[in-house]
Design brief:
By secondary structure, the chain is mainly α. The protein is 58% helix and 3% strand. It has a 3-stranded antiparallel beta sheet. The protein binds acetyl coenzyme *A. InterPro entries: 2-MeCitrate/Citrate_synth_II, Citrate_synth-like_lrg_a-sub, Citrate_synth-like_sm_a-sub, Citrate_synthase, Citrate_synthase_AS, Citrate_synthase_bac-typ, Citrate_synthase_sf.
Length: 375
């Protein structure tokens, strides 16, 4: 008798990885052995990219080298540049990113190599280009040109500059930078698993990332952050949060931004995002989104025992930073690119095809009949 499948592969250990680790009971997350609480607000996103893709926290020299590589890697290939606008006209942000990454593979300088060195270079280019793609998409759909990147600003600062058209304050840039660190990797989440399945066929890194972007787009995964803000916008006031939560739960609907497959206590990333949301509520003088979030958090915990996941407070933080709501999941992808590519590198380094079994639940012993006799 074949073993029963685990629906949604719950509790199945699907791969070995040295990139990140979660202790779901204790609510702890580690990148290559470092506790996320020790990294958040202390390393910048470029250091985090080095840690995930290259295995160590960089020395000053290594960081300077990677920073240079990321700056050079921002340049989009001609095919991508030509297609930014036509794609932006017809595709949503995540669809467009999937298209752009697919187009980028055709002119990648390491197109025909999956060697470890080529994979590292591709990983850096993909990571460098993702924020540029989001910014160019956003500019193209509005018929404007994104401002040139400012060499004085880091990845997060330049992203905010190019999205909002305004130079961010140092604190705004730092907050987004911390968000990028917090979202960068998360063990066998759905999009990373999709990337690894694709990579394990010995397909290329761009293909694996396209698979990952497609998986991140869904509302049960990365797409939840946009839905959190859409819910708040539909509710409108703190006083109306209770009614909406009651109605949704009574109707058996899920409340976006709550629950997690692995965490049985607070998602450690939510701890930091809640703090940042509170800070931005105070500094912007607009505490509506933060107060709605707090009220919803209390209610959903009281009624369902569910805690916020990473997407919940990310929504208000991004909103306070002036990021358009339909780009929230795209911001997630800017960060998670670091983790996806690290996992593809790891998968290729010790590969075996990922091909699980299935339980057959269909009919048996069906008899073929000619088409003329079928009713
Ligand atoms: N709101 C209301 N009820 C919920 C929620 C929620 N957000 N999450 C789980 N539940 C309930 C389910 O209805 C189910 O109840 P039941 O047993 O009475 O049917 C039970 O909790 C288990 O839920 P599952 O969906 O089976 O849990 P699973 O581990 O498969 O899903 C998931 C985890 C997808 C994150 C789920 O909690 C969810 O859909 N949350 C909302 C979407 C979301 O925020 N996604 C982002 C996750 S973080 C990330 O991917 C970056």
């Amino acid at each position: 008798m074949a073993p029963r499948p685990s629906k949604g592969l719950a509790d199945v250990v699907a791969a070995s990885t040295a990139v990140s680790d979660i202790d779901g009971q204790a609510g702890r997350l580690f990148y290559r052995g470092y506790d996320i609480h020790d990294l958040a607000g202390k390393i910048n996103f470029a250091e985090c990219v080095h840690l995930l893709q290259r295995g160590t926290l960089p020395t000053r020299g290594e960081l300077a080298g990677l920073t240079g590589e990321l700056a050079a890697g921002r340049e989009l290939t001609p095919l991508v540049r030509r297609n930014i606008e036509p794609v932006a006209r017809v595709q949503s942000p995540m669809e467009a990113l999937r298209s752009y990454v697919s187009l980028a593979s055709g002119e990648d300088p390491d197109k025909d190599s999956g060697s470890p060195e080529a994979n590292l270079r591709k990983a850096a280019r993909l990571t460098a280009q993702q924020p540029v793609l989001v910014a160019r998409y956003h500019a193209a759909r509005r018929g404007v040109t994104a401002p040139d990147p400012d060499p004085e600003l880091g990845i997060a600062g330049n992203f905010l500059l190019q999205i909002t058209g305004e130079r961010p304050s140092p604190r705004q840039a730092d907050i987004l930078d911390e968000c990028l660190v917090l979202h960068a990797d998360h063990t066998m989440n759905a999009s990373t698993f999709a990337a690894r399945v694709c990579a394990a066929t010995l397909s290329d890194m761009h293909s694996a990332v396209c698979a990952a972007i497609g998986a991140l787009k869904g509302t049960l995964h990365g797409g939840a952050n946009e839905q959190v803000m859409r819910t708040f916008q539909a509710i409108g006031t703190v006083a109306d949060v209770d009614r909406t939560v009651h109605e949704k739960l009574a109707a058996g609907e899920k409340i976006m931004g709550f629950g997690h497959r692995v965490y049985k206590s607070e998602d450690p990333r939510a701890t930091h995002l809640r703090r940042m949301s509170a800070e931005l509520a105070e500094t912007t003088g607009d505490d509506l989104w933060y107060r709605m979030s707090r009220r919803m958090e209390d209610l959903v915990f009281a009624e369902k025992g569910l805690r916020p996941n990473v997407d919940f407070y990310a929504a208000s933080v991004y909103r306070y930073l002036g990021i358009p709501v339909d780009l929230f999941t795209a911001v997630f992808s800017v960060s998670r690119m670091a983790g996806w590519t690290a996992h593809v590198i790891e998968q290729h380094a010790d590969n075996r095809l990922i091909r699980p079994d299935s339980e057959y639940i269909g009919d048996h012993d069906m008899k073929w009949v000619p088409i003329s006799e079928r009713t």
